[in-house]
Amino acid sequence: MAKLYLYNSLTRKKEEFKPINKDKIGLYTCGPTVYNYAHIGNLRTYVFEDILKRVLKYNGYKVNHVMNITDVGHLTGDRDMGEDKLEVGSKREGKSAKKIADFYTKAFLNDLKKLNIEMPDKMPKATEYIKEQVEMIKTLEKKGFTYKTSDGIYFNTSKFKNYNKLSHLKLDELKEGARVEKNNEKRNPTDFALWKFSPRLRSGQVGRQQEWTSPWGVGFPGWHIECSAMSMKFLKGRLDIHCGGIDHINIHHTNEIAQSEAATGKKFFNYWLHGAFLNIAGGKKMAKSEENFLTLENALIKKGINPLVYRFAVLQTHYRKTMEYSEEAIGAAKKGLNHLYNQIKELRNKKGKINKEHEDKFLKVVNDDLNLPQALAKVQELLKSNLSNPDKFATVLRFDKILGLNLDTTSNKLELPENIFQLVNKREGARKEKNWEESDKLRIEIEKSGYLIEDTEDGMRIGKR
Ligand code: AMP
Ligand code: ZN
């Protein structure tokens, strides 16, 4: 089998992947801040991480995947300034922070399902592991890495050697980046909050909804500490791979490494992988703080486009290259996926064999730092080869373990009228949850609208009556 190479942001090199324990790999991916819908930029990062996990599994590894849910502590400025995003969401919608978190967590899980992203094994919420975060801050305090200001307990970055080992920035550049947000009590511009005091502790100010007691007074944890505390709790001894978007390199992940290694004296994660941004046409990063933020719902589903078209579009760009969003690009991806579905529809057959030669070629590019654009080219090579249809089908279904494009249940779903498409998707959801009653109801509704749905051994087929 081809060796697996991954680009490690720590060393800035493609490295052969070597797990700590061969029996199971620990994978930690920074999860969403649940104060709003995920935008398709965020979702690009989650698709990249899903591909990584599927590739690890394809290579025979078992994976323990942990993704946190940030439901407290992430401020509007990544450097401890501004308001807690959950409190912002709560004010915006006039609901409690807890209600906001529950609602957007559900919406996020729904997006993952629609994009065929496999569920993490564990999704711990920051608010449920405050004790672990406080313990870690206590350790850092004992070891002399912290100091107190009027608004919280801070980590002293000048006490941690190689603070820049992930960002590779010079001290001057790091300071420059940090200087924008003024906090005169910080000893170094790069220092960051481990624990923030409740505004209530300062006279005349109102408190927050989410606060806890601690040895330092009532308050809430900083954003970075949750990922350190929860990854160590759930991946004990298996800190193999940690991922996120590139915006996490200079602050969030840099701070996670500093506080974790300061606390334990040991290396915190061997491989750091980062996905590049989705930009909106014109070169601007898609962000919730900008007006340019598109959800899966408004960019695709409302237009009657299967969300897997977005997954396909993501696969077409290497994860370390910037991806440009435009309606035209989505249109082209729709055409591309439709073409692939039509190619495969012709091949349906259960009795084929996986072709080793084609699989090796596919795996070689996939294992070369997740080169999915090349992998899609290998799919075309296979489909255009002179292998028998059953063998092509068996082989392409094997590839789909990584692609996750539902190649086994292809139909002409992409061309269905929007209402039928929605019903078909709903029915598939009901079937996945084994809700047969709901699924039968939906089938009847689909039939009444003039379409026939058929569940065959090879998957679902749909056509006009
Ligand atoms: P957040 O919910 O803001 O904490 O972000 C969730 C994930 O999306 C993180 O891994 C971010 O690095 C990533 N992310 C944020 N904006 C973009 C973007 N425009 N393109 C790709 N990934 C992004
Ligand atoms: Zn994180």
Summarize the structure.
The chain has 15 helices and 17 strands.
Question: What's the topology here?
Answer:
Elements lengths: L4 E4 L4 E4 L8 E5 L10 H19 L4 E5 L7 E3 L3 E4 H9 L3 H18 L15 H13 L3 E4 L2 E4 L15 H9 L12 E6 L21 E3 L1 H12 L6 E5 L3 H16 L6 E5 L2 E3 L3 E2 L10 H4 L8 H8 L7 E3 L1 H19 L10 H11 L5 H13 L4 H15 L14 H15 L3 H13 L2 E6 L2 E6 L1
Parallel strand pairs: 3-4, 3-11, 11-12, 13-15
Antiparallel strand pairs: 1-2, 5-6, 7-8, 8-9, 9-10, 13-14, 16-17
Helix pairs in contact: 2-3, 4-6, 4-7, 6-7, 9-10, 11-12, 12-13, 14-15
This protein binds adenosine monophosphate and zinc ion (ZN).
Q: Which ligands are bound? A: adenosine monophosphate, zinc ion
What is the assigned CATH homologous superfamily of the largest domain? HUPs
State mean pLDDT (0 to 100 scale): 90
Can you tell me the CATH architecture of the largest domain? 3-Layer(aba) Sandwich
Order of strands in the sheet with most strands: 4-3-11-12
- What's the N-to-C terminus distance? 47 Å
Fill in the CATH topology of the largest domain.
Rossmann fold
Residue share in β-strands: 15-25%
Structure explained in plain terms:
This protein is of the alpha/beta class. It has three domains: 271 residues, HUPs (Rossmann fold); 137 residues, Four Helix Bundle (Hemerythrin (Met), subunit A) (Up-down Bundle); 50 residues, no CATH class. It contains 15 helices and 17 strands. The strands form six sheets. A four-stranded parallel sheet has the order 4-3-11-12, covered by helices on one side. It has a four-stranded antiparallel sheet with strand order 7-8-9-10. Helix 6 crosses helix 7, helix 12 packs antiparallel against helix 13 and helix 14 runs antiparallel to helix 15. The chain is globular, with a radius of gyration of 24 Å. Adenosine monophosphate (AMP) binds next to helix 1 and strand 11. Belongs to the class-I aminoacyl-tRNA synthetase family. One of its GO terms (molecular function) is zinc ion binding. Keywords: Aminoacyl-tRNA synthetase, ATP-binding, Coiled coil, Cytoplasm, Ligase, Metal-binding, Nucleotide-binding, Protein biosynthesis, Zinc. Its EC number is 6.1.1.16. It catalyses: tRNA(Cys) + L-cysteine + ATP = L-cysteinyl-tRNA(Cys) + AMP + diphosphate.
